[in-house]
Amino acid sequence: MPGSRPQPPPRRAVSARRARRPPVRRWLLFLLLLAAAGAGAWWYEFQRVVVAAGQAPTLTVEPGMGARQIGQQLHALGLVHHPEIFRLAVMARGAAGRLKAGEYALTGPLDLEGIVDKLARGDVVRRTVTFPEGKNIEEMAELVAPLGMTPAAFREAARNASLVADLDPQATDLEGYLFPDTYDVTRRPDAAAVLVKRMVQRFREVMAPQLPQVQAGGRTVRAVVTLASIVETETARADERPRVAAVFLNRLKRGIPLATDPTIIYALRQAGRWDGNIRRADLDIDSPYNTYRRQGLPPGPIASPGRASLLAAVHPAPGDELYFVSRNDGTHHFSRTFAEHQQAVNHYQRGRGAAPPEPPPPSPRPPAP
Predict the structure, then answer these.
(1) Which of 141, 160, 216, 243 supports an S-S bond with 151, CB 3.0-4.6 Å?
(2) Where are the beta strands (DSSP E) in the chain?
(3) Among 358, 241, 225, 363, which Cα is nearest to 297's?
(4) Is residue 323 a part of any domain in this protein?
(5) Has residue 184 been placed in a domain?
(6) Treating both helix axes as pointing N-terminal to C-terminal, what angle do 261-270 and 221-234 enclose, rounded to 10 degrees?
(7) Measured distance CA(114)–CA(82) in Å, rounded
(8) Under a CB-based contact definition with an 8 Å cutoff, are residues 70 and 88 in contact?
(9) Does residue 168 sit in the same domain as residue 246?
(10) Which of 299, 296, 271 is nearest to 284 (CA)?
(11) Helices 221-234 and 307-314 meet at what angle, rounded to 10?
(12) Which of 176, 207, 238 is the last residue of a domain?
């Protein structure tokens, strides 16, 4: 009828629409259950053994690499289901910013927590290399390949003469100053430079106690190391080294050429002509290292001497011997005169004549510090 009020919609329809809306508490419960499930899944991922016993995959962490990038590597290795898991584990362990670069062997059994702790400690793979006495830079460079280091990188690092500039201002490389020893090496971009610095530091430690006597005798470190390198390459017997050093020093005092084969070999190496044999014609090679044709010490060291040879060069045996020749059994016969030396050469090298008389050994010196 006109003038009557419009009737409101039936209440039943409004109630039906409201009934279709879930209460807020149901949404909160759903979200809590979802969060709990996620936390449980994350906790399972964090705690589970990701590297089984007997496995040892390698993980390489480059300098500047963050937790997310490391997680991507672990994901690529099949150790985590998602790269983000590792980043969350790092945060949970409070290790953010403490992960160290290097090469890691993830030896199982190991969980994610263990991996984080390993990287935070810097528990990297360490490989060892042993440099024998009497090797030169070129020969040492051939020994570093198993370390993941290239010979070229080692040679380049060994040209850093600034490391010994205070000891030897004339040095143009580190020949003679890379102390022969066993070193452990970790994988890193500057591994060759780090190794070479350690070798020079080891040389300094061995040589430091001898420097006062070297200076008091008016000798240079370069001259001592050069002599020691020749002594090292002439005899493998520690008890003979002071005597060999004395022979060379006696020859230097009298102006007699050293006439030592190891310097010829070094000259041939420099010229690219060394094939393992010295021929008579090689004794005429035009080189400052030809000690058959030139008097005095060669321009610099020809190899890396060990401690015994360095001490022998600083503390030579007393005596006036000028010659020695191999007995072909690892020992040498020493002589004072050329006639005695020729007799020894005929007997030991040519199989002719009686054995020459052995000169008495020099008086023992007190042990060098």
Answers:
(1) 141
(2) 49-51, 58-61, 102-105, 110-111, 126-130, 182-186, 323-326, 332-335
(3) 225
(4) yes
(5) yes
(6) 100
(7) 17
(8) no
(9) no
(10) 271
(11) 120
(12) 207
- The pTM assigned to this predicted structure is 0.77
The total number of residues shown for the chain amounts to 369
CB-based contact 285:207 (threshold 8 Å): no
Tell me the one-letter amino acid at 327: R
pLDDT value for 37: 46
Please report how the helices 241-254 and 221-234 are oriented relative to each other, as an axis angle in degrees rounded to 10.
120
User: Token pair 């949970």 is at which residue?
Assistant: 92
Which DSSP letter does residue 247 get? H
- Contacts of residue 20, Cβ cutoff 8 Å, sequence gap at least 6: none
- Span 7-40, pLDDT tens digits: 655 555 555 555 555 566 665 655 555 554 455 4
- Domain boundary, last residue among 207, 232, 263: 207
Instruction: Count CA atoms within 13 Å of residue 278 on its CB side.
Output: 15
Tokens of 305: 């001497």
Q: Distances in Å between the alpha carbon of 75 and those of 39, 51, 59, 261?
A: 20, 12, 11, 59
pLDDT, one tens digit per residue, over 38-92 is 554 555 555 566 777 777 788 888 888 899 999 899 989 888 888 888 888 888 8
Instruction: Answer yes or no: are the C-beta atoms of 73 and 88 closer than 8 Å.
Output: no
Structure tokens given for 119: 């990287």
CATH no. for residue 87? 3.30.1490.480
The residue type of 119 is: L
Say which residues have a Cβ less than 8 Å from residue 299's Cβ, sequence separation at least 6. Answer: 288, 289
Tokens of 87: 């980043």
Domain interval for residue 85: 45-121
Residue with tokens 């590792």: 86
Q: To which H or E segment does residue 84 belong?
A: helix 83-92
